[in-house]
Amino acid sequence: MKDPNKKLFGLILNGGLSRRMGSDKSKKLISNKSLISLVVERAESQVDYLAINSNQKFYDKKIEIIPDCFSGNLGPLVGVLSGLKWLKKNQNSFDNWLVIFPVDSPFFPENLVQCFFEKLRDEKIVMAECKGRLHPVFSMWHTDNLKLLEKFLIEGGRKIDLFSKKIKTRVVNFPFIGYDPFFNVNNLDDLNKAEGIFNKLGGTN
Known about the structure:
It contains six helices and nine strands. By secondary structure, it is of the alpha/beta class. A hairpin with a 2-residue loop joins strand 7 (about 125-130) and strand 8 (about 135-140). The chain has one domain: Spore Coat Polysaccharide Biosynthesis Protein SpsA, Chain A (Alpha-Beta Complex).
């Protein structure tokens, strides 16, 4: 469970190359709001301290940028490890749990973190699911995973689901609400769909 006397740390993953989008997806606009600003707005209300995992400084708000601890754009697990390393260095002030938010999914539940902690026992990873589809990047990681995850990456492992099979993991199911709340924007067609969802929500995130 979360330590009530310590801050909860959240990390937005923005280390991808946006190949399918053609340019940096975090800057793409939905009703004049960038993807990253929408994710920041929704995430910062659920954690005590929010940072962005990126290898470039690009966001104009005063949010800490945490670069990948391994070079080579090796995928989201390197972002997770980078966050766990940061958390370990700051363990006196922060809880042992790291909450991960991907930069390309702006409609995730406003009670995501609350649901992650509900009924949590001795699991070391928590992941989101909707309608039987796992969304492993929407996740929460205990610092106990740090050494094992680092070893996994050094040995060439890259996929979250392959790592989580080795760890006691809890999957939290979230309802389908006319759309998958974990819908992610990978290309221009997805961006148009996201615009439609945003408008259905009344133009508010």
